[in-house]
């Protein structure tokens, strides 16, 4: 039980001449939420699919609950949430979840799970007639109904409205409290920051950074404000305390980093006054996980 829920060492996955995963190594602890983040094409989906046993690695070692990913003994111990597919279109929502539950020795109460995820009123609705968000919630329900030790969640809140997102977040929180390991991929930085005990950021098929959300974002605070685009930040930098930084990103949105205190705040507001601009929406906040993600992976579209 001291071993990690997922351990990956030197994983390589190629598709023809393209190397999607290039020597990746990471761990996901038991009883914790591990979020895997990365731009499109970074290799995260290939990595997770190998862990789930749907693809084979070309090189490296992968262990899931101490076993090879395709080991039959893992099937009752692991829950998998797919982004789409896998459910016969004519199958009714409740019937599908009851069928899945019968593969497990001690499944969760199906009716209670349907209620929790807002699907009780749609229990007799065929899968093809469910909305995208309802289909997503049914996939989540199928992943957890068997009381797994480890759950893989691939973008669990994609396409969900705010109410459904929060219901999903609450369920993930309860899974962790029950000692279940959760490995999730997401493009929502606020979701990873809120849920994850450990975050792994990958790009180009490699881990570029990892740690707790607090460790990745650091204790450094930022001063943010809006003003007209194109202000001359060189003059502001000359007036700021040593070690400070200032940038405009995107246009008209300014970020000042460093030892944010009364002196820095007074310097910025005095500079704005000298420039003849008003600092709108001025606020002090900590660096976000999205800031870290963009610094590490860049802003270009993939």
Automatic annotation (TrEMBL):
Residue ranges the record marks as coiled coil: none
Give the matching Pfam families.
ABC_tran
Localisation per UniProt entry: Cell membrane
Q: What's the domain of life for this entry?
A: Bacteria
Drop me one GO molecular function for this one.
ATP binding
Q: How does it sit in the membrane?
A: Peripheral membrane protein
Main location per the UniProt record? membrane
| A GO biological-process term | response to antibiotic
Q: What are the protein's UniProt keywords?
A: Antibiotic resistance, ATP-binding, Cell membrane, Membrane, Nucleotide-binding, Translocase, Transport
- Any one Gene Ontology cellular component term annotated for this protein: plasma membrane
Regions that span the bilayer? none
**InterPro entries on file:** AAA+_ATPase, ABC_transporter-like_ATP-bd, ABC_transporter-like_CS, ABC_transporter_ATP-binding, P-loop_NTPase
The segment(s) forming the ABC transporter domain are 6-229
Spell out the SMART domains in the cross-references.
AAA
Q: Which PROSITE patterns match?
A: ABC_TRANSPORTER_1 (PS00211), ABC_TRANSPORTER_2 (PS50893)
Family annotation (CDD domains): ABC_DR_subfamily_A
Can you name this protein? ABC transporter ATP-binding protein
């Amino acid at each position: 039980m001291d071993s990690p829920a997922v351990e990956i060492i030197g994983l390589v996955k190629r598709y023809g001449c393209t190397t999607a995963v290039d020597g990746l190594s990471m761990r996901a602890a038991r009883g914790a939420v591990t979020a895997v983040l990365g731009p499109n094409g970074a290799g995260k989906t290939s990595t997770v699919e190998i862990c789930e046993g749907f693809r084979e690695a070309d090189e490296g070692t992968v262990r899931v609950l101490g076993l090879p990913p395709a080991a039959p003994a893992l099937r009752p111990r692991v829950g998998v949430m797919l982004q789409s597919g896998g459910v016969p279109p004519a199958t009714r929502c409740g019937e599908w979840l009851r069928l899945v539950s019968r593969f497990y020795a001690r499944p969760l109460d199906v009716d209670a799970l349907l209620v929790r995820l807002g699907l009780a009123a749609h229990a007799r609705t065929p899968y093809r007639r469910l909305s995208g968000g309802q289909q997503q919630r049914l996939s989540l329900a199928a992943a957890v109904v068997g009381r797994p030790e480890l759950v893989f969640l691939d973008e669990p809140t994609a396409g969900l409205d705010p109410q459904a997102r929060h219901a999903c977040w609450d369920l993930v929180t309860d899974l962790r409290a029950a000692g279940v390991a959760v490995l999730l991929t997401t493009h929502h930085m606020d979701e990873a920051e809120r849920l994850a005990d450990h975050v792994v950021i990958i790009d180009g098929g490699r881990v570029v950074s990892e740690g707790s959300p607090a460790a990745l974002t650091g204790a450094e605070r930022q001063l943010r404000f809006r003003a007209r685009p194109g202000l001359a930040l060189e003059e502001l930098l000359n007036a700021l305390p040593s070690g400070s930084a200032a940038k405009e990103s995107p246009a008209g949105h300014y970020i000042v980093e460093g030892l944010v205190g009364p002196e820095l705040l007074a310097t910025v507001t005095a500079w704005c006054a000298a420039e003849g601009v008003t600092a709108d929406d001025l606020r002090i906040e900590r660096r976000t996980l999205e800031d870290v993600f963009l610094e590490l992976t860049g802003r270009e579209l993939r």
